[in-house]
């Protein structure tokens, strides 16, 4: 037998149940429900019984006060007559009266002798009582009768006579027992309901947690198609399930994007790298002069620059999607920025016999990253000019959208900017427009044009960074790329201020087929 420290014994299975969060939650729910019902019913019991006791005591005190007044007014004859009248009118037969003289002799009332236990006049007594052959309980209180009118004149305040007033509380005892039994049975039923509710909550909680655990476990083991089931009633469980499913869908899209980008990089970069290697190898073997060798090296460097531009574009898209550029957000006038980009591309458009038409307001305050907005518009114009036929027209439009008739500002001060670029080129099919913003995607009609298919991916990343939306639609002929960008309230409040002129377009990432265009602006059309 091997020696050493003994292995820890496994924890008994009965203790594993206490580690269940759903069981602890359901037990806590059941205990809270049962305790709250006990407190509520105890409050009802004490409130009801206390009210009955206060009602009896109030009635006895009021009765004794009235009898004392009758005693003061007319003495013993008047008091005795009043007691007899009240006994005759007492339909419930629960009133108790007794008057004795200073020597303890019976004078009037329906009790034959003064109870021996009643010694003081400043406290209440509960004594057994037998009336009509039935035993019960009586609530009693003793009073000292004051002196009569004549004794008051003589200065005597206490006559020595004593009055005993009480009520038979047999009915109150019956009601107390009935109320106690009812509340006990009600508490038993409430406890059973609490236990049933705890079991139900335990089942629901456990089912929900197990569903999440099964789904996440399946995802962890590679089954990316598993999703949380939806009940369909729109409750909190459905909201949690929808949030988890949306998260899983985004993870799948990101993984597919990484897989697609990896494949595209391997496919698209292999050609320029192989071309550069072939050119250098051919020049090393067959170049007959320094000029031929220098020309081959320049061509190879150009191909390698294209590879570098692609990697720079991918890194910049990743930075934008990660939100790393939000620190550069500022309020500026967008119209000069758009005009500068249009001036940059106007010469290129004229060289290809293409007209560039602008539809811009006089000024347009906007809150965002100036250089990124420049780059997005430059990519859109480059794509439009690249695929427009000679004699065509490229339109650049920008306007503030009307949120309501005659209103361009929402209730919280924000607005919406519509920015679109339209061309009259070959356009795209519906299927291609659905995939146009994917990295390295190029439609069949754009296979023979320069570019790597990252232009609209860059535009989409910039739009998402600004909290906007991008939409592609047919222009018949051609394509329209529309951007819907929110205008922050701080930008609208500064619409009348003078803004500094925008800087020249920078951040060159991809080579363009046009001589003076160096920004990341490749098209996917």
UniProtKB/TrEMBL annotation:
Its main location: membrane. The chain crosses the membrane at residues 21-46, 184-205. Residues 209-256 form the HAMP domain. Its EC number is 2.7.13.3. GO terms for cellular component: plasma membrane. Residues 498-525 are annotated as: Disordered. Pfam families: HAMP (PF00672), HATPase_c (PF02518), HisKA (PF00512). Keywords: Kinase, Membrane, Phosphoprotein, Transferase, Transmembrane, Transmembrane helix, Two-component regulatory system. This is histidine kinase. It comes from Komagataeibacter diospyri.
């Amino acid at each position: 037998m091997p020696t050493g420290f003994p292995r820890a014994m496994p924890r008994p299975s009965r203790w594993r149940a206490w580690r269940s969060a759903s069981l602890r939650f359901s037990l806590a729910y059941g205990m809270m429900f049962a305790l709250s019902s006990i407190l509520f019913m105890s409050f009802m019991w004490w409130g009801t019984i206390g009210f009955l006791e206060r009602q009896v005591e109030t009635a006895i005190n009021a009765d004794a006060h009235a009898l004392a007044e009758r005693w003061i007014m007319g003495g013993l004859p008047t008091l005795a007559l009043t007691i007899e009248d009240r006994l005759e009118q007492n339909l419930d037969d629960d009133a108790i009266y007794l008057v004795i003289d200073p020597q303890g002799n019976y004078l009037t009332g329906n009790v034959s002798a003064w109870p021996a236990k009643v010694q003081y006049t400043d406290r209440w007594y509960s004594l057994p009582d037998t009336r009509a052959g039935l035993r019960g309980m009586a609530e009693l209180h003793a009073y000292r009768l004051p002196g009569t009118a004549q004794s008051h004149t003589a200065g005597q305040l206490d006559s020595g006579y004593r009055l005993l007033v009480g009520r038979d509380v047999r009915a109150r005892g019956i009601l107390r027992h009935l109320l106690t039994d009812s509340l006990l049975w009600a508490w038993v039923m409430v406890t059973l309901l609490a236990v049933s509710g705890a079991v139900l909550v335990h089942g629901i909680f456990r089912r929900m947690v197990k569903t999440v655990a099964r789904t996440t476990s399946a995802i962890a083991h590679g089954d990316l198609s598993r999703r949380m089931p939806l009940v369909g009633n729109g409750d909190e469980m459905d909201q949690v399930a929808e949030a988890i499913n949306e998260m899983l869908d985004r993870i799948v899209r990101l993984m597919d994007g990484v897989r697609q980008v990896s494949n595209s990089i391997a496919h698209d970069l292999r050609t320029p790298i192989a071309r550069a290697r072939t050119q250098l190898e051919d020049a090393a073997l067959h170049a007959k002069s320094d000029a031929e060798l220098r020309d081959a090296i320049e061509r190879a460097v150009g191909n390698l620059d294209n590879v570098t531009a692609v990697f720079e574009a991918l890194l910049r898209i990743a930075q934008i999607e990660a939100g790393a550029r939000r620190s550069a957000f500022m309020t500026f006038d967008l119209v000069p920025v758009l005009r500068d980009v249009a001036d940059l591309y106007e010469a290129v458009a004229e060289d290809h016999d293409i007209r560039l038409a602008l539809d811009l307001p006089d000024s347009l305050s906007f809150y965002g990253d100036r250089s990124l907005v420049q780059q997005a518009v430059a990519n859109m114009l480059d794509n439009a000019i690249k695929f427009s036929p000679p004699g065509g027209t490229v339109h650049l439009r920008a306007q503030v959208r009307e949120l309501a008739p005659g209103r361009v500002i929402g209730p919280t001060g924000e607005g919406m900017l519509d920015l679109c670029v339209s061309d009259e080129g070959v356009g795209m099919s519906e299927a291609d427009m659905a995939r146009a913003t994917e990295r390295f995607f190029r439609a069949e009609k754009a296979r023979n044009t320069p570019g790597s298919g990252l232009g609209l991916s860059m535009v989409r990343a910039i739009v998402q960074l600004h909290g906007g939306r991008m939409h592609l639609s047919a222009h018949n002929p051609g394509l329209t790329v529309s951007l819907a960008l929110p205008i922050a309230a701080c930008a609208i409040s500064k619409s009348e201020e003078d803004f500094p002129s925008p800087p020249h377009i920078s951040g060159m990432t991809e080579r363009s087929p046009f001589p003076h265009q160096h920004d990341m602006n490749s098209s996917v059309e």
